[in-house]
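Structure ticket #2291
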Amino acid sequence: MKRAVMIKDWALPYWTRGQAGRETPPDLFRVLYYGWLLALTLKLLGSAWDVSWHFKWLRDDLAPPHLLNSAGTALAVALTIVHGYTGYGVDRAALRLIQWGTGIFLVAVPLDLINHRVNGLDITSWSPSHILLYVGTFFMIAGVIRGWFTGAPPGRERTVVLGALFAFFLENVHFPEQHQEYGILSIGAWDNDATYAEPILLQFAADQMGRPVDRVTMVGFSLPVPDALYPVYAVIAGMTVLAVARLMIARFGAATLIAAGYVAFRTLIWPLLTAGGFPPSAVPFFLVAGALAVDVAFAVRIPALRAALGAALATAAVYGGLIVQNAVMGGVYGGLTSMNGLLGAPPLATASALWAGLGLLAAWLACEWFAARKQGGLHTLRLSVAS
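Resolution: structure written out below.
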C-alpha cells in the first residue's frame, strides 16, 4: 500500500497536458519505455501460445493466450494515452505512429471477432482481419522504436533496448509465417497417426471445406497458402527489418543478435508448449543465417552497393538455410518430440528465390534512400559502419 502511494505521488505531477516533443525527465522516459517492453513481452507470450493453441483447440475468444495478449494490449493502450495526453517521451512522428498503430489494432479486434462469428474458423493467419492486427502492431512498435531512438541518451542501455524493440518488431513481422511452421508438423503428425488437433477442430475445418476428415482436409487447414509465400515473405519482410535494425543500431552483429534472440525464444518455448500437450512447430533457424549476411553486407559503405550485395547474400543465406532445414527433415515430417521436427521447415519453392531477392533489393534500396534523406535531421542515423 505504501509503495502504491509512493508511485502515485511520483506520477501525479507529470499528469499535465502537453504537446508531443515535450522535454521528458530521464526517470519518466525510462519508466514509459520499460512499460512498453513489458507490454510487448505480454503480447509476445500470448501470441506465441496462441498459434499453438489454435492448432489444437477450436477457437475461443476467452482462451488463455488471448487473455495474456489482451493484458499487453491494455498496457499498450494506457501508454498510448499517457503519451498523447502529456506529450512526454515522444516527438510528433513517434506519437502519430503509436496512435495510428494502436487505433488500427483496436479496430481490427472487433472486425476479427465479427469475421469469426460470420465465417467460423479462420483457416489461415494470412486472412485480412489477422493481417490488420499485424499492421496495427507494426506501426505501434515502429512508433515506440522512433520514440526511444530519438529520445534515449547514447550508451549501452540505448543500444540494448533498441535491439530488444527490433526483436519484438521482427516477431510481429514473422508472426503469420508460424502458420506454415506449425502446419508442416501437424501434417506430419497426421501421417504418423499422432494427430495434435482435437477431433472437434478437425471436424469443424472439414465441415467448412465440405469434406470428410482426411489428409486433404488436414493439408487445407495446415498449409492453405502457396509454398512460395513462406520463403519470399521471409526474405523481403524479415531481412528488411534486420537491415533497418542494423542501419539504426550501427553496430556489427546487431542484426544477427536480434535474429538469434528471436530464434532462441522460439527454441525455448518449443519444449514448454509440447510438455503442456500443445502442438510443436518448426523453428526458423535460417533467419540467423540471413541476419549474418545482412551484417556482412554493411562492410560495404556505398549504400546502393551495400543493398545489392546484402540482398544477394541474405537471399542465398535464407534459401540455403531452408534447404538445409528441409534436408534435416529428410522428407519425413517431425513428430511431437523429434529433433527433425524442431529443425525442419515448411515446403520450399526454390524457384521463387529470384523474386524474393529482387523484392528485398527494392525494399533495401528504399530504406537506404530514406535513411540518407533523414540523415541531415537525425545525425545519429549513420549510414556508415561503426567499428
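Closing remark: The chain has 15 helices and no strands.
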